[in-house]
Structure formats: C-alpha cells, structure tokens
C-alpha cells in the first residue's frame, strides 16, 4: 500500500477503505508519510468530501492514535457535551452542576481558549485554587461521589488530530465539514463518554457562519456518533451576538453564577437548560425533554444548582466563597465605557469582533502558549433589539493594559445602530437527533 495511491484514489472521488485510512493515519504518526503527502490528501478530501463510512473510520483512526479514557469504573451512563466555540459561551460551567443534580455523571474533558473563542478551563482557573489538573483516580472518584468533574485534555488524546489540524491550518483546508466533524468527534469519543450532546453555534461569532453549513456539520457529527454506537444529539444554537452580557474569564464565571442563582439572561438560561435537559435524557434520568427541562428549572429555583456549583469548586481545590462574593474574582484596574453616537436601536453586534476585542484586552490568546489576564473582558450593556440614546453606554471594556485603543475601536465598530427595532432571534434553531 502506498500513500500515492490513496491520494490518487481520493482525488478521483472514490471511497477509501478502512485499511487505507488506518494506513494513512499510522504513516502520519510514525513519520513514514511526509507532510506534503498528508497535505495533498487533505486537499483531496476538501474537494471530494468523505462518505459517512469514511468519516466515521477517520474519526476512529484518530481516536486510536493516542490514549482513550476508560470510564467503565464510573457508575451510570456518562454524558459529555461539546461546543463548537463562541463568544460569551460559559454554558459548560452551568450545565455540569445542573446535570449532576439529576444524578447523571458528567466526566468533562475541556480545553483552553484560542483566538476569539474562550476556553472553559481558563474560565474556571479565574477561581482561586481551582485545579483541572486531576489525577485519573481523583477524576473518577469525584464523578462517582459527586457526579461531576472537569479536567484539561491530556497531551496524548487524539495526537493524530493535532497533527492534521496543524496541516489544515496552513493549507486552507480547515473549513471542510467532514474534517471538522471527525476532529471534534474524535476528541469526544476518546474522552470516553457513553453519550454526547453537541452545541453547534451558528452566526457571526461562530466557526459556522450560515445555517446550512451549521446543520450539515451537526448532522454529520450525529451520524458519526450513530456509526460508532454513541448516542448523540446536536443542538444548533445562535451566536450572531455574544451569549449573555459578559465576555472574558472572570466575567463569565460571575455570569454563570447568576444563571445558577436564577438571575441569568434569557438567552444563556435557555441554551443552558436545553443542553442540560438533553444530557439528562440521554443519561436516563428522564424519558422526555419537557420533564427534564421542568425539573432543572426547579433545581435552579430551589438553590440546589448553585449549591452544586459550590461543591464542584470545593472538590477541585477552589474557594467556594467566590459564589457569594464574586468580587473575589480577579478585577481589572481599567474600565472604559463605550457610548452610543446616536439615538436608535441595536440592530446587530458582531460577536467575533467582540471576541477579538476581548482578546486584545488580554482575555484571550493569539498563540497557543500566550498568557491570559483572567480579569480582562467586556460587559455588553446593550444587546440586539434594545433602544439606545446618544451618550448611552453600550459596553464596558475591562483591562489591566494601558494601551486599549485597538480593542476600543474594534468593540465600538461591532455595534450597528439603526432607526428601526430588530426582532429578537431564536436562541435554539434546530435539534438533530
């Protein structure tokens, strides 16, 4: 078997066999297939696509290239969730304690942020002492005892995906739906969960900018899950403006606390409850979505949800007092208000540009190993559809930097104000089962 023949076969639009895909991934890992041939295959896939069978096999080949977590020692049906990335997306912080309250174990493996999208691990590390560097024994014990734990990705989880993504990034093949789907699903399957709920974001702040592509990605990932015997549900949710009012690490922890206390904004509360409800249904706690949703609303109202979040903080080394005293979170020294230049209504907010502005303030990373400032971020005072008067504050920048001009202009230009009121969009666009 030769790499040349596999590239030629895919270039000509034919389906690759399981053996051919495994051969290629193995060759990428051991160095017998050079980067230029791997890049050629990626480009052939970009133009010719992959069948459902090929996509599932590529996913499993990447899973098998590294460690696979065995969660069999954890009692119950293990459920995981994944977001394709957005701005102000603090949903994992909310759903973990919610789902655990229903007795469904959540063994969550999460990553750090890069570019304009935030990372769950970075957000939680805003809490003093909170550690996601857990031993396997501690991770399993916490899930068995408390039904929840969250840890960072191990270095050897799907290493083939890391190699392929690095090549996709420099060969203009990132935006291939079968490659995106297999990349995401390989990490989720390697993380060992029995069931997966996917939050596929669509809009200006999402990787998928239009609805058709978002639905296609969601359907592809659900098909991969089915082919690999993993119960999978995909939720296509809105990211045409940032989720909630806060962007940035400590900011988003504070807002997640507000949601768990029952004081959250309508959009993030709706998205969080929808995802958590489907997680509890897959986990066997409820037989219908409506029953799960009603139960989880009561969990928030009763105070059990926020108590569970305190418990999560405590068992992972953090100080739970931060829940009742959010001023203990990192605070920026500079707070810069951006004001409206005119009367009117907020017609749109470019979520990606808000994310970029937050990154420029220190909340995100341009490169993988860049340090971040947990105190930096942006508060959206006004959201789409709201009325503004000239001189009203539309958002506030938080930073410890003294040079924030680029972030100021990027954030200000993200808001489009018109003389008509835009109708509020749906928060959830489609459910794919």
UniProtKB/TrEMBL annotation:
Catalytic reactions of this protein: uridine + phosphate = alpha-D-ribose 1-phosphate + uracil; thymidine + phosphate = 2-deoxy-alpha-D-ribose 1-phosphate + thymine; 2'-deoxyuridine + phosphate = 2-deoxy-alpha-D-ribose 1-phosphate + uracil
EC number annotated for this UniProt entry: 2.4.2.2
GO molecular function: 1,4-alpha-oligoglucan phosphorylase activity; metal ion binding; thymidine phosphorylase activity
Cofactor(s) of this protein: K(+)
InterPro entries: Glycosyl_Trfase_fam3 (IPR000312), Glycosyl_Trfase_fam3_N_dom (IPR017459), Glycosyl_Trfase_fam3_N_dom_sf (IPR036320), Nuc_phospho_transferase (IPR035902), PYNP-like_C_sf (IPR036566), PYNP_C (IPR013102), Pyrmidine_PPas_bac/euk (IPR018090), Pyrmidine_PPase_CS (IPR017872)
Any Pfam family the entry gives: Glycos_trans_3N
Residues in Pyrimidine nucleoside phosphorylase C-terminal domain copies: 345-418
Keyword Metal-binding belongs to the record: yes
Enzyme class: transferase
Gene Ontology biological-process entries: pyrimidine nucleobase metabolic process; pyrimidine nucleoside metabolic process
Domain of life: Bacteria
GO cellular component: cytosol
Function (record text): Catalyzes phosphorolysis of the pyrimidine nucleosides uridine, thymidine and 2'-deoxyuridine with the formation of the corresponding pyrimidine base and ribose-1-phosphate.
NCBIfam families: PRK05820.1, PRK06078.1, Y_phosphoryl
Family: Belongs to the thymidine/pyrimidine-nucleoside phosphorylase family.
Subunit note: Homodimer.
Name under which the protein is recorded: Pyrimidine-nucleoside phosphorylase
Organism for this UniProt entry: Lutispora thermophila DSM 19022
